[in-house]
Amino acid sequence: MGERAAVIIETPSATFQMNKILKFRSFQSMEITYRQIAETIMAEYPDITAYIGNEFDRNIEKIYMQYNENDWDFLVRICKDMGIPMASHLNEIVMGNEINLEVYNAQLNNAVYGRGRERENIIFRVRESTDPYNTGERVKITLANQGSRGEEGSDTRIVSKALLKIKDNYVVNDYELIEMSHEFETVNNSGGYIIEGKVMETGGVDGVATMKIDFSHGLEKSAGSKFQAYEDEYAGAYNFPYCTEYSSSNSGMFCTPEKGDVVTVYIPNNNENFSYITGAVNNPGSERFSNPNVRNYTLAGDESAGGVPMFDFQLNSRVFGISVTDNVNMNAKNSMDLGVGSGNFNVNAKGKNEIIEGETVVISQNINQTVSGETVINSVGNTTINSGGFSVVKAGTNVIING
């Protein structure tokens, strides 16, 4: 090779491939496993070899929303939640401890090494080693006087950091090892956002109002045209609590979103299980709530009622029933109309009292009255009976007319 020869070094990077695109995706089913999530992510990278530990075979402990996260950061967040390491080298990714990987014996004769502490974790650091290890690989260290009785002790650890460098024309490696029981801090790079979803079903769990949501619409809307969104494969699998206007005493007069309505879901922190629905939004027909004359309820003061709040309540239903344990009172200042379009108007009661200050007018095709006891009609003025045909008065015994 000449002095001016060019050298091209090809270094494939799994992290570079996986952190280029921000994505929007939902994993809202508590019935899926961590492995299903990892394999779904890695299916888009056929050139990357993924080593997934047996820890991923258990069901997820919380739902996951990949919101404005690239695939690398999303998988790192999941691994940190599980308390397991994740590392990449070239075109390989290693996730977990329970993986059948080759274990190398560390050669420490010509290296400088020691132990340190980061929070509750013990870190084993090696400097200027001639062994070129990569992150994620398993290394066994054997040291004298490390056993419980002063004997030679050994254990297997994971390479968490590795740095190759040239010193005095030799290639040496500085690396750090962590224990299999290393405790990882959770990643708090998610939460504090709102996403829209469509109501699939309303109901409740343990007396709490909940709804099942399809996030496909909201994921696409949040992603826009610059990023990548996915259909909500597990739509409706989780019960999200709804932020009602009702207290535990059931006070309030507000409608809840219905099936097909678009609602907003607030994800307050890194635990998506704490998400809740804040209310309906962007639904056709909701403009009526901006107009006090047509919305379902109003708090506008009625001048004729002395300025007190007035409720304009409209009910459209096939059957409407009212049942109370005591009294029902209906009062109107001007007029009260009661109409039955077809059918009968029935009143059943033990007694009936009518007090009419003005005139009483009854217009009917036929009038039939049956009384099981006495009938008394008192008039302080004149009483006139007009008939276009015959007028018949019948009695079981006598008919007495006093003039």
UniProtKB/TrEMBL annotation:
Lineage: superkingdom: Bacteria
Gene3D superfamilies per record: Baseplate protein-like domains
Protein name, per record: Gp5/Type VI secretion system Vgr protein OB-fold domain-containing protein
Organism of derivation: Sebaldella termitidis (strain ATCC 33386 / NCTC 11300)
